[in-house]
Amino acid sequence: MTDLWLEHKSRLRSYIAKRVRESDAVDDILQEVLLKAHTGLHTVKSQGSVAAWLYRVAANAIADHYRNAKPMETLPDELAEPEQQPDHIASLADCLQPLIDDLPETYRLPLVLSEIEGLTQQLVADRLGLSLSGAKSRVQRGREKLRQRLYECCDIETSENGVVGFELRDPKRGCRR
User: Does the domain made of 2-69 have the CATH classification 1.10.3720.10?
Assistant: First the structure.
């Protein structure tokens, strides 16, 4: 064991030092690798895989070091509570339903299953007896048709955070607010 350790010690220390900045921590992690090597070396099946096993032990020890270095912080109560939806989002959702209902069934059903019920497109394909590419195509076309109809009836204001407001162009076109 001593010869094996002396053979790999300096390379393992360099490996650890490249990943951990604090020199005290490098020495602690190297010591931990030595202890694990001493107690677990008998589990290595062939002599040729000892170096790989030592580096895996070192990588795990480095990960443990970083995992233990960051104490868990509790979130403030106001962050833990779910955010209220802005009124314009709820109003826009009310506007979308008639537009979705007005889509041809070929596009409406895959769109609703995928976007509203949250099914994967593979599950949509299975449920509707379509190929995966057919289901993807119908969901995409449904999204595009819905987008076109939404822009026909509403002026939508967006930012990097999403929809920030909208105005109805023509309430007779299926949108209501």
Answer: no
Rounded distance between C-alpha atoms, residue 168 and residue 117, angstroms: 27
What does DSSP assign to residue 161? T
Within 8 A by CB and 6+ apart from 108, the residues are: 100, 101, 142
**What's the pLDDT tens digit per position in 50-65?**
777 888 889 999 998 8
Gap between the terminal Cα atoms of the chain? 77
Same fold for the pair 2-69 and 87-173: no
User: Is residue 51 helix, strand or coil?
Assistant: helix
Does the pTM exceed 0.70? no
What average pLDDT is seen over the chain?
81
